[in-house]
Amino acid sequence: MTPAILWLTGWGMPDSCWEQVRRQLPCALHLAPDFSRVSRPEEFYEAVEQTARSVAGKELVVVGWSMGGLLALRLAASRPVAGLVLVGATMRFVRESAERDRGWGAAVLQRMKRLLPKDRERIMAQFAEQMLTAKERGQNRVDTGTAGAQWSQQALLAGLDYLASEDCRHKAASLFCPAVVIHGTDDLICPLAAGEELAGALPAAEFVRLQDCGHAPHIFYPDVVGTAVTRMVKQIAQKHGQASVQ
């Protein structure tokens, strides 16, 4: 049985950001929900759950980046998954002042939500800039001027509400599936301490730290993310006594 791979992108980001990783698994069944027209926060998870249901009976590997990592954790808590690969992810995006090393204050998201309808391009460009280190900005792999271009205004606002409300800290300890947490040391969106906390909370997690990397490891280190996903797919295939997926 060839596992299905569910790809969950981050806030405002296109599904195409996974292409460098996905092409390393040409024989896998690739799935991705469309978040671009979501209008309410709960619709993000509804879209994920509906996509997962479409491959009922197949082993499912879930790869989540940033907001997609929160959705991956929530899915794994509600139905069996064969494995998780969590990239630049966290269990809780908004944190109180005592935990500010692991997340943003609620006021930052509230400000973004207030300004987004007035100056969408600037807010999205600023967010995209924060995803990258100075070195990464010089590599021109991310067009910060087009961030969020595919998402409707309603979807972006709903995504900010989802990030403000979702809390998976009480779910992680019950997720015994294999997991790989991949995190950049210079991530300003989901700080490194949030990734370390996540890996420590998951019972069967491997933590991969990427030095001098920001919030987009799958774009700047696609081979690292691809290797993690490929290894998980091969382990599932071997468990079922089948040839590994290349």
From TrEMBL:
Domain AB hydrolase-1 stretches: 5-219
Keywords: Hydrolase
Domain of life the protein comes from: Bacteria
One GO CC annotation: membrane
UniProt entry tagged with the keyword Hydrolase: yes
A GO term, aspect molecular function: hydrolase activity
Classification via Pfam families: Abhydrolase_6
Entry keyword annotation includes tRNA-binding: no
UniProt xrefs under PANTHER family: AB HYDROLASE SUPERFAMILY PROTEIN YCLE, MONOACYLGLYCEROL LIPASE
The protein's name: Alpha/beta hydrolase
Species of provenance: Brevibacillus agri
Lineage: Bacteria, Bacillati, Bacillota, Bacilli, Bacillales
